Amino acid sequence: xxxxxxxxxxxxxxxxxxxxxxxxxxxxxxxxxxxxxxxxxxxxxxxxxxxxxxxxxxxxxxxxxxxxxxxxxxxx
Length: 76
What we know:
This protein is mainly alpha-helical. The protein has one domain. The protein is 49% helix and 12% strand. The chain has 4 helices and 3 strands. It has helices spanning 3-11, 16-25, 32-37, 64-75, and strands spanning 39-41, 51-53, 59-61. The chain has a 3-stranded antiparallel sheet with strand order 1-3-2, with no helix packed on it. The protein starts with a helix and ends with a helix. The model has no long low-confidence stretch (mean pLDDT 88).
């Protein structure tokens, strides 16, 4: 990942270890719109398809469109 792209993602509030964890969760390449669609949520949600607990203890929500994009990339 380029340093400029990393800076843009970090400006969205993600820490380096969170970025690595999210990138390892997806087989598809994530663009800036994908990163902007990932939202931080209260950590009282259960981890599952749409919710993912990061190594920092914070929880994020993946929208259906992002999960669908990843599913389509696996079919290619």
